[in-house]
Structure formats: C-alpha cells, structure tokens
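Retro notes (design track)

What went well: tokenization of the new backbones is finally stable.
What didn't: we kept losing track of which sequence belonged to which structure.
Fix going forward: every design gets posted as structure first, then sequence, in one message. First example under the new rule, 155 residues:
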C-alpha cells in the first residue's frame, strides 16, 4: 500500500507540474458613432398681418409668444445660416431676424438674398427660438408681399 501511495503522490506532483500558467490577451474594441442631426421646424409660415407704410422693425405676429421655434437634437456643433428670395411684387421691404435659446426680443441681422451665418450652437437637445421684424418704407406701393426664407442648420 505504501508503494501505491507513493505512486499516487508522484502522479499528482507530475499533474501539478504540467498545469498551464494563466494567460491574458489585450483585445481592441472599436465602435463608430456617426454624426446625428435632427432639426424639426415647428412652423412653416410667418405672418405680419397688415403693416402700415413707415413701420420700422414691426414684429411678426407671435414673436413674443415664441411661436416660431425649432426642436434641435445633435451630437455635433451646428452653424445656423439664413437667406431670403427677393420680395414680390417689389423687393423694397427689409426683413430682420433673431434666434436663440430664449425668445428673442430684438433683431440680430438683416436677412438678405445672400446666405449669412446667424450663429453657432453647441451639441445637445433644445428649442431654438426664431423671431422676425419688418421695415416698410413710406413710399412702398400697396400690395401683398411675400418672400421665401431658408434657414439651414449644418455641422
């Protein structure tokens, strides 16, 4: 029996000696997150109603209530730019614009037929408020006037 015990102990020792040491590996894990921009305009028209000749910086109806707003969600900073088409029937009216995270109370820029930067906004989720003002020269011919404004949010 003594011989069997000795053989068992020798076999156990040999098995321990053959045990593999612990190993480790460094694994690289990657992911790509694309640019995400969601801009939802909560209006598609701006009304000034009837504006008398000689009016200066006449506010659009609904400016002070924050009627003109955009829901923005983005993981990158965005540039905001604006331009308009020529007024019809006569390109004589002056349109002014402002934007911000609170309802604007005064104009920031005069909107022209050339695109211009009106702000850079940080990544995040928020409401961007817009407001409009109109100046009508005293000698403006009577009529119904219209223009199309394009506002772009771009990375």
């Amino acid at each position: 029996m003594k011989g069997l015990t000795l053989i068992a102990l020798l076999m156990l020792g040999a098995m321990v000696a053959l045990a593999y040491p612990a190993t480790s590996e460094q694994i690289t894990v990657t992911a790509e997150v694309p640019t995400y921009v969601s801009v939802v305009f909560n209006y598609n028209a701006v009304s000034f109603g009837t504006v008398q000749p000689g009016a200066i910086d006449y506010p659009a109806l609904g400016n002070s209530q924050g009627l003109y707003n955009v829901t923005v969600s983005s993981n990158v900073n965005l540039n905001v730019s604006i331009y308009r088409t020529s007024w019809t029937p006569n390109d004589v009216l002056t349109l002014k614009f402002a934007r911000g995270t609170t309802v604007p109370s005064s104009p920031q820029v005069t909107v022209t037929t050339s695109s211009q930067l009106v702000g850079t906004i940080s990544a995040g989720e928020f409401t961007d408020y817009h407001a409009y003002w109109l100046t009508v020269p005293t000698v403006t011919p009577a009529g119904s006037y219209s223009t199309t404004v394009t506002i772009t949010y771009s990375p």
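Added context from the reviewer: The chain has a mean pLDDT of 92.
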